[in-house]
């Protein structure tokens, strides 16, 4: 029965945080500051109302910090992942899990039928949904921590 719920439950029914959206051409400095202030791991980059890219912490680490002399006033467009795969809020959680697993995504922009940015699905939203769907299994799962043989620290 639970597997059926995963395949049928619509993304729109999950608890999602509001997406942080910036305009294409926004300076990298401003985008990183918005991510910091909103405690967000990614932003959606939109041109008018259409999603044209996604910029994540991974992009920052791999594309920005790895280069020696980055001009922080450069547009985010130079560092974002352009034309990201998207889902609709009417797609199912099962479809989202399949795409996240297949492509290694942690974040998927949500768009309506016209391509307008309407939200963001994050892997933590999926984990929260699954934890609520399987509460007994999650609560009774054995700890994966190893016990320390000797005290550590001061």
Q: In sequence order, what are the helices and strands, one letter per element?
A: HEHEEHEHEEHH
The CA-CA distance between the termini, in Å, is: 50 Å
Low confidence ranges: none
Helical residue percent band: 25-40%
Taking the sheet with the most strands, its summary is: 4 strands, mixed
CATH level 4 superfamily? CBS-domain
Structural class computed from helices and strand pairing:
alpha+beta
Principal-axis shape equals: globular
Question: Could you tell me the number of beta strands?
Answer: 6
Mean pLDDT: 88
CATH class: Alpha Beta
CATH topology: CBS-domain
Q: Helix count? A: 6
**Sheet with most strands: strand arrangement:** 1-2-3-4
Number of spatially distinct domains: 1
Q: Write the CATH architecture name.
A: Roll
Beta-strand level of the residues, as a percent range?
Answer: 15-25%
Radius of gyration over all CA atoms, rounded: 19 Å
What would you say this structure looks like, in words?
With 154 residues, the protein is an alpha+beta fold. It has a single domain (2-136), classed as CBS-domain, CATH 3.10.580. The protein has helices at residues 2-8, 28-38, 57-64, 93-103, 123-133, 135-139; strands at residues 21-23, 42-47, 50-56, 81-82, 107-111, 117-122. The strands form two sheets. The chain has a four-stranded mixed β-sheet. Strand 5 and strand 6 form a beta hairpin. The radius of gyration is 19 Å and the shape is globular.
């Amino acid at each position: 029965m639970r597997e059926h719920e995963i395949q049928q439950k619509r993304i729109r029914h999950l608890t999602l945080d509001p997406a942080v959206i910036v305009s294409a051409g926004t300076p990298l400095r401003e985008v990183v500051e918005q991510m910091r202030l909103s405690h967000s791991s990614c932003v959606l980059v939109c041109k008018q109302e259409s999603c044209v890219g996604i910029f994540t912490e991974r992009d920052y680490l791999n594309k920005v910090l790895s280069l020696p002399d980055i001009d922080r006033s450069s547009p985010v467009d130079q560092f974002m992942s352009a034309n990201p795969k998207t889902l609709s809020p009417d797609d199912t959680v099962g479809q989202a899990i399949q795409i996240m697993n297949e492509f290694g995504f942690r974040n998927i922009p949500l768009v309506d039928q016209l391509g307008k940015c309407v939200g963001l699905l994050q892997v933590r939203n999926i984990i929260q949904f699954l934890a609520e769907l399987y509460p007994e299994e999650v609560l009774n799962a054995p700890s994966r921590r190893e016990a320390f043989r000797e005290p550590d620290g001061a």
